[in-house]
Every structure is written in C-alpha cells, then in structure tokens.
Amino acid sequence: MSTRERRIRITVNGQPREIEVETRKTLADALREDLGLTGTHLGCEHGVCGACTVLLDGRPARSCLLLAVQADGHEVQTVESLGTPEDLHPIQRAFTEHHALQCGFCTPGILMSTLWFLRETPRPSREEIREMLSGHLCRCTGYLQILDAIEAASRSLAESGT
Amino acid sequence: MNPDGGIGAAVPRREDPRLLAGRGQYGSDLRLPRMLSAAFVRSPHPHARIKAVRARGIRAYTAVDLRDVGSIAPRWDGDGFRPTAQRPLAEGVVRYVGEPVAVVLGSSRYEAEDLADRVEVEYEPLPPVPDLATALRPEGPRLHPDNILYRAAFAHGDVDSAVRAAPILLPVTIRSSRCTAAPLEGRAVTAWHDGRALCVWTGTQVPSLIRTALARCLGLPHHAVRVLVPDTGGGFGQKMHLYPEEVVLSWLAVRLGVPVQWVEDRRESLVASTQAREEEVEVLLAARRDGTLLGLRARIVADVGAYHVFPTTAALEPLGAAQILPGPYRVDHYAYEVLAVATTKAPTGAYRGVGMTVGVLAMERAMDMLAERCGLDPVDVRRRNLVPESAFPYRQASGLLYDAGACQEALDAVCRVADYAGLRAAQRSARSAGRRLGLGVACYVEYTGLGSATFRRRGMTEIPGHEAASVRVDPDGTVRVALSFPSQGQGHETTMAQLVADVLRLPLDRIAVEPVDTQSGPHGSGTFASRSSVAGAGAVLAAASRIRDRAAAIAGALLEASPQDIEWATSRLFVRGAPSRSVAFQDVAEAAYRLPPGGAIAPGLEAVEYFDPPPATFSSAAHLAVVEVDSETGAVRVLAYYVAEDCGRLINPLIVRGQLLGGIAQGIGEALLEHVVYDERAQPVTTTFMDYLLPLATDMPPDVREVHVGRPSDRPGGFRGMGEGGAIAAPAAIANAVADALGVQVTRLPLRPEDVLHLLDPGA
Amino acid sequence: MKPPVFDYYDPLTLEEAWDLLDRYGGEAKVLAGGQSLMPLLNMRLARPAALVDLNRIPGLGSVQVEDGVLRIGAMARQHDVEVDPRVRESLPLLVEALRLVGHVQIRTRGTIGGSLAHADPAAELPAVLACLEGEVVATSRRGTRTIPARDLFVTYLTTSLEPTEILTDVRFPLPPPGTGWAFHELARRHGDYALAGVAATVRFADDGSIADLRLAFTGCGPVPVRALDVERGVRGARPSEDLWEDIGHRAASALEPDSDLHASGAYRKRVAAVLASRALRAASSRAAAPPAAADEGRGGP
Description:
The complex is a heterotrimer of chains A (162), B (764) and C (301).
Chain A: E1 5-12, E2 15-22, H1 27-34, E3 53-56, E4 59-62, E5 75-77, H2 90-97, H3 107-120, H4 126-133, H5 144-159
Parallel strand pairs in A: 1-5
Antiparallel strand pairs in A: 1-2, 3-4, 3-5
Helix pairs in contact in A: 2-5
Chain B: H1 16-20, E1 36-42, E2 48-54, E3 60-61, E4 93-94, E5 100-106, H2 109-117, E6 120-125, H3 132-136, E7 148-156, H4 159-165, E8 168-179, E9 188-193, E10 198-202, H5 207-218, E11 225-228, H6 244-256, E12 260-263, H7 266-272, E13 276-287, E14 293-303, H8 316-324, E15 333-341, H9 356-374, H10 378-385, E16 394-395, E17 401-402, H11 407-418, H12 420-432, E18 436-448, H13 452-458, E19 467-473, E20 479-483, H14 492-504, E21 511-513, H15 532-559, E22 566-569, E23 572-575, E24 578-584, H16 585-593, E25 606-611, E26 617-629, E27 636-646, H17 653-672, E28 704-708, H18 725-742, H19 753-760
Parallel strand pairs in B: 1-12, 10-11, 14-15, 20-21, 27-28
Antiparallel strand pairs in B: 1-5, 2-4, 2-6, 3-5, 7-15, 8-13, 9-10, 9-12, 13-14, 16-17, 18-26, 19-20, 19-25, 22-23, 23-24, 26-27
Chain C: E1 7-9, H1 14-24, E2 28-31, H2 37-42, E3 50-53, E4 63-66, E5 69-73, H3 78-83, H4 85-90, H5 92-98, H6 104-107, H7 112-118, H8 125-132, E6 135-140, E7 143-148, H9 149-152, E8 153-155, E9 158-159, E10 166-173, E11 180-186, E12 196-204, E13 210-218, E14 225-226, H10 228-233, H11 241-253, H12 265-286
Parallel strand pairs in C: 1-3, 2-3
Antiparallel strand pairs in C: 4-5, 5-10, 6-7, 6-10, 8-9, 11-12, 12-13, 13-14
Helix pairs in contact in C: 11-12
C-alpha cells in the first residue's frame, strides 16, 4: 500500500464506491470531486462553519477535517441521500415551509446534523435545538427560521413515527 | 391578487427543493474537461516593492504577462476624487497583505498550492500605513501620491449660526470597526473560452458591470464576454465588485484556451476580499433645551484600504454615511466633511447597510446622549425630532428627498409591540435585584431602489442605475423570466415569479426565473443596496404588463372581442360579462406561435423592459433591542428584539422576515463580535473563523417580533426596498441598549466583554 | 487551503504505531480525532513528513470505573464519554466540562486523549485533569510511563510526551463521595475556547468546614493553573458568600494570563476571579451537606 495514494472503498449513501485518492485528500474533496457529490460544501476548511458536515457511520463529522482514506471501509451519508427535489425528506420539507434557507450554502451540513440529532433526541426543546445548531454558521438567515423548521420537523417525524 | 402565489403570498421558494437536495450549482461545483485550478501567490507584506519573482521551473504568471491588461480603475465624475489603478497582478509595488502577485495553475487546487509554495518573491519592504493617523501624517508614507482618495464637503443652511445659538452643544465621536461580509461561500471564478466568447462563471452581484469591466480590461467587444451567475452562497455587497482574480482568470482562459477555476479559501476571504465600515465619525449636535435639534455638523473619515473598488469606489461608505446622518429627524442646518483615506489594508467595499449603518450608529448614539443631557427618555427625544407624517415628501438638509418616512408610526408601533413602559418597569425591578437590563432604540430611514439620477448626482459613473427583465411566454404557455439582477439568497427565483404570477394570473410553477446570464438576459446594474423590489420589480412588472396587453389582444382576436373587454382569471382570459367566452392562457400562447388564419394575430409573445426608478425610494423602521449585561464579566446577551418596519408592500412575507433576521444577526455580530484586526504593522490578525467571530444561533435573541407599518410606495407594485434594515439598525440598537443598561457612553464597536467592563470601570 | 503532501499510515496495532513514530523520529504526527490537527494541515501550518492515524487500532476507546478511578482510553470520542451513563454518574464534572468543548459535531470525532495531547492553553479537559490530579499513560517501544497532570502540560500546545510516544489512557481519580463540583467558563460565543475557565471541587468536613477545595484555571496562562496556596490556606474555613468571593479573588491574583485580540491578560485575570467564585458557589451547593445541616440537598461528586 502506498503512503501517498490509495485505492479505497467507501459506502456512500448506501452504495459501495471505489476511488483512488491521494492520502492527503480530504473526504470533502473526495466526495465533491471524485464522487461528484457536490451537495457537501466547503465554507472554511478548518472545522468551524459546519457546511461540510456529513454522517460517518451515522454520526456527524466535518468532512473537511477527515481524510478520504479514513473513510475506507466505512459508511458515509451526504445530503444527496435525504431526498430529491420531487420527493423531499420531512426535514427538508420543514426547511422550505419555514424559509430556513436563503443562499442554501450552509444548508446541507445543517440537514445532516439535524438528521442525526432528531434520531438521538426525537423531542428536543428549542434550547436543545439551538445548542445543536450553534455548531453551524449561517450568514443569511439569522437562525430563527431554522429553529422553527427543526422544531416542526421533529413534530412531523414524531407524528409519522419515523 | 392571485392567492396561490401572487404578490403577498408567503409561498415556499421555488429554488428550495434543489438547494435542499444538494443540487445547487455553486461556483466551485462546476467541473469542465481539461480544467486547471489556480492558486495565487499573495503578498505577505502590507507595503513593499517587488524586486523579483523566482518560479524555478514552474510557470507562474505575473504582472509582466498581464502588461496589456487594463487596471481596475473605477471612474468618478466629480470633484475631490483621486483615482487609483489596481493592476490585476501587482506591478512593482504591493499595497496590502494578500494582494495577488502571481498565479500558478495545477491539475487540482492541491497541486496548485504545492506549486505556489515553490514560488519565491523577493520584496523590499516599505513603511506600512496601518491606520488613519499614519495615513494623514504630512511626512508619512504615500500610497497613491496622496493618501486621500476622496474628499467632499457640503453645507445646507447656516450651521455656524445654529451652533452659536444653541444652548446645548453635544460633540460625539463614534468609531466603527473594520468588518467583513464573510459570506459562507467564498468567491469562486471559472473562466473558459467557448470559441466565440470568454465565458466567466462567477458568483457576482453585478454581472452586467463585470462584463463591461472585463471587456474593457481585456480589450474585447461586449458580445465576446459572457458572464454567467451560478447559485451564489451569499454576497452582502462583497460580491458586487470586480476583483483582480476575475481579471486574471479571464485573461488566462483567453490566453491558454483551457478552462481555469479559482476558489477562494477562507483565509483569502478574510484577508483579501473587500472589507467594510472602519470610520471615525465626529458629530456635533446643536439643540434646544427641549431636545429639539437646531443643527448638525459631521466629519467622517473612513479608512478605505489600499485602492478604490470597482464600481462603487472608496467614496461610497463615508459619503453614504454623511448623506444619511440626519436620518428621520428635522434638521434645518447640516454640514459635513468626508474623507476617504488610503491605508495598507484590503480595499473597503460595499457591505450590507453600506454607509447607513455607520451613519445611523452615530446619529442614534448622539440622540440617546441628547436624551440624557436633556433628562428625556430616548423615545421621547426622538418623538420630538422625527419629521412628521404630514411633512412628506420631505427634503432633508442632506439634500436627499424622502418620498416617505414612517418613523413616527414605526416608533409608536415598536413601543406598543414591545410594551415599552412595561420594559422600563421590568428594567427598574431587575436593577433592584442586581441585574442590568438595557433598552436601545434605533430609528432610521434608508434609501433603496436608487435610480440613475442618484448615481449620476453622486458621481458614481460606473453604475448605470436601471434594471431590466425579459418575460418570454413559450408555446406551451409557460413563462421564462430573465433578469439583470441575480440572487445571492434573496429568492428572486420566487419573488420575481410571484410578480409575473400576479400580473398574468398564472400558478407559480408555470413560471421559471432563469439564472442570470448576460448573453441571454438584459443589461442592468445588479443586486445591491436593496434595489430588487423597486428597480428590479419595476422592470419585471413592466415586462409582464406588456405580455398581459399582448395576451389580451390575442385573446380578443380569438374570442372576437375587443382587448379592452378581456378579463383575467387563473390561467384563463374571458370576455367581461360572458365568462363562458373564454380561452386558456396556454391556448393564447400557442396562438402566438402557431398563428391561426386570418392575420389578426402577430407572432411572438415576449417583452423586454428596462426600468429606471426614481432617484430613491425610502424605507424606514424603528428597532428596539433589550439586552442584559453581566456587570461582573461584561458579557452581553440580547434578550429580545422588536422591529416596526415600513418596506411598503411585501412580495413574500417569509422572505421579508428572513432578510430582516439575517440583517439583525449581522448587526449583532457587528455590535458584539466582529472585528477585522490589523496590527500596528498592518498585518492582518483575524485570518480564520477562530479570530473573526460570526454570530451563532446562540447569539440571537429567542425571537424577533416584527410588525409592518407605513403604506405602499407609489413605485410599481407599491414596493420599497428592504433587506439591509437589520444590518443598518441593530448595531445602533444594541449599542444604545448597552449604554442604557450601564449608564455609560458607548462610542465604539464591537463591544467585547472586556470593552463593556472597561466602560463600567475605566480605572480597573 | 489543502494539506501538503505527507506519508500516511493507518496501523492496526499500537506496536506498529510505535515503530512508525520511531522511524520518523519526531517528523511524524499522530492523528486522533483530527479536530485540531486537520485545520493546521489544511492551513499548511503543520507540514509533518508522516501522519500516523490511530483510528484503526482497536481497544483504545474504552470507559471503565474501577477502584475509584475513571479510566478512559485515549481514543474515546468526547461525545461518547459525555453521554456515557457511567461517566454521568461517577464524574459529572467531566460531563459539564465536555459540554463546553466546541460543538457536538466536533465532539463526535474529537477524542479525550487528543484534547489533552494538544494542550491548548484555553481547553477544558486539561483543567479537569489538573483539578482532579489525574494522569495519563504514555506508551512506546521503550515501555509505558504514567505522567501526572502537573508534569504533563509544559507550555502552549506542548506536553511532556515524546514525539515517539502515544498517549493511550487517561485516568481521572474520582473525588470522594459528597464532593461538590462545577466547571464555569467565559467564552466569546458558545463553544469557543475559554477566555478564562475554571474547574472547581469542594468537600465539607462533618463539622461543616472545608475539608478540600480545588481550583484549576484554563485560559490563564500557557498551562492549566491550580491555586495550590489558596487551596491549602482555606482548609478548615467556614463556607460563606464572602469566602467564595475572597477565594476567587486571591486565586486569580496569582495568575498571569496572556493577552490576545479577544481579551487582555488583565481582563482574564479579573474574570477568572468572578468565575472561580461562581464555580465555588455552584460546587458547594452540589456538595453533600455536613450532618450538622440535615435538610440540605444531597450532592455527589
């Protein structure tokens, strides 16, 4: 095995994918460039903004702070797995109903965090949502409509028994 | 009004599904065959001569390669302007840390950075100009022969007499700190030549202006330059400028014949993208004992960084502040002096609230200080000075003509919704329990939707002032809309569709607002300074109205009725009084492209309209912030926030609220967290998001209560501009609230906990 | 901002990791959670010749309570420790501190050992380790050694770990039953590094006097600082509002914090005093009441 380049296998959104990458390549860049999944965005590349958040083995991770090779043999879930424009996930539907996105650049990361968060904490208080959301920077919305959306999503997921 | 999606409907946005599904197409998402990635070699010195560039086997492009390319040198038509010319790659001298000196290309950004690491530049450092004091020193270092890039003076009435006669003279000096827009998506430029034209895919707010400027720099005819605007992750004014990187990437694409892409990283964004604010405002209020204003004098000195920015120039920020300063108050005598001073920092450009934020901060702090001097409540002192409703349209002493200004109504409304008296009582009882609550009010008027007359009067010759829209009905009756003004999150894909839906009585999903592309869309000024709902909407409504008239004519021909007798229902046109004599809009469209016999119908169903709005349309508001200050640590929490706003008729209340909240968040950031710091050697200190602190969800108040007042404008649609209000007023409201909580004078932002503690206890 | 080239290794055993570190002789960096190292790599502020990734070595993330000690494997994720019922029950001070470490999206990857080895002067975990007088276990081919907190943190971002050593275990001695605890900090925003922070514990004797009191400050110098003189001097004293104020003030007066763009050293010192008083007040309300004051609420360590 080379120390500078590897052929790796990652299960991405349920699909096994095989790519060859430099070992220094971040997971974010591998997703965007090698796998064509540009829904994961880069806002800072130093782990503060959260725009690059994906789920690694079901838990949120800043993909700009992961090397692609670290995901070899693991499962990665990105925003593309949540829904399609014609068939949005309940969380996505709640976001559009509450105008929880403006430019949309930070949104995929927040969606992935929220997906994990609502599984862990199905009936969160607004304060708990706010605290979880503080791990994400948004420059457009002022956050309050995002809080509204996540609250609504938690209710609709609870109702549908998801 | 079409209840399904017309004007006023709080419809979810059309762009949301694809953005939510991760299918947005942002600047860095474009991948083209043979595309190369660029990395810039940037100056580590604030001021230095470039002695040599050694690339050692790497092809590094420098100013020598670009010697035939024009400079970024915005023009200004008027006195007091000293032009600057920024070379796309620094030539001979660098004037700020981060200024691009060379560019290299690699097969990936990783490789490009490796190559850039190997480029050595030899510099001979020159003395830095880190602040205004150094810049204004007579024997200090000079950046552009003169460090004063713009100066202006103005006087209305007789301020000297007012000052002499005034029983109360209140001098106030306010310092606003340097900020940066920090959109979540940095800049990104992809350029290629498609055989006929240079194509530039760039997240810009001003595509027509970028096209014009690139054509000028590269010596190309306009038809040979195409600017396409992708989904853009925020702009806030920062993306309304022509940047050296755009010029360089364009040149490379033409020269090399392959696509080239540059994606700004966060360090570049915080260091080399345009910055904002940083002004010193000296105000002298002359007032009567009852707190009514007699006159106002202001001197505004702005630290504008190393160069004028295109198209707005360094004049914009301080001149805007000076012109808005008297605000919504009755001021008969006003004089100002404005200086824009160059320093060795990144150039100052537009940022949400441009000019107005600092002007409002200064004036609203001064009004609170006046209240204290006269023993009045801050709300009362404002009531005594606000221009009454009956006086509008009102020619302010600044020369600006306010078509409206609902501040009296807004102030009353915000006090009502906040229960001002109740808050004061709560403040008193909290105080006796040892808690320091503070209330801060900020009233403002805001110029929006500026027309060409304003840009010409200012001298801002690079900005046209009009907007344009084309509305094209296709044979199946669906509608395409092309705009001159792109969105960076404001939702034009929805709001402009709502306008068309309203005029043509069509469901929203039959209307597609296309991405902005100078090749297929009309020429305009762009998206900035809250102009879309006045200037942009004016063009869209005009074009849609032409379609309406043409469609009525076609329907008339089909129904054998006069066009004047045609009425509209959802997706249908019918004869007045005989609703069964009707035709579907879809069939009207088809008839325009598959002409029925008889020759009564002319082919085609599209319209392009250009709209130059009146010089300015004024929005206004009153904001009220409630804060709590921890008097032991100086930490400030925003407990509650109230807004009463007149932005005319609303197109989409969800979007209006979103704009308000986003602006308030930025205002809270400016008040408490955000500061672009350069050290005494003009080295940037805030180079990451650990240093430059953006507000988080935990920094917002639990809620913002919003009410709308005022009345529709008499512009098309009855709209006023909006979007900047939160950023304009929140810094002032919070500054006033902190001052109110502690009984101290707040004269500079941001207020770190330490700064608050220092205000409380200067000796410690 | 892309990482420079390096040699990457993801060994499956600790022994392999030791050998790699030995081979690169200090030019290799250990990759644990990556939340501190990856930003440095992305910004090219760190240019190691090699990266030794510990994430595939099994058995380094366990959590156990044994003989009055909470033993945590160095690779245990901060979030896993934060929600572990054994930790919540045995050492809530650690949980309170962990909740202030960045954001949950950082803590799902960040590790307990990684935070200690990174030794940021304003981090929370070093202060907790210092407060409880815990220790870490460092291993290499040359054997195992135990490093107590007071010897671990040397200066800014520097521990006494050799570049060829790997921190494998962290041990937090549990305070005796009835000890009250608190972690207070002041940050510019929620989740930021502390401008100043303090871990506090207090335990009362049967007669209600202070039997043991500890304060460990973070953000107030290059390493966490214990207020040992003050702690010793206060044993046997009777608790009161004035006492907490006085202790906070005296403990902070010995600090020499640095200045940066967020706050000056003088401010940090002042706030440290306030935080210490508040933390002691909170800790004492959580401490078990001495038998003399029978109706008081029960606390626990």
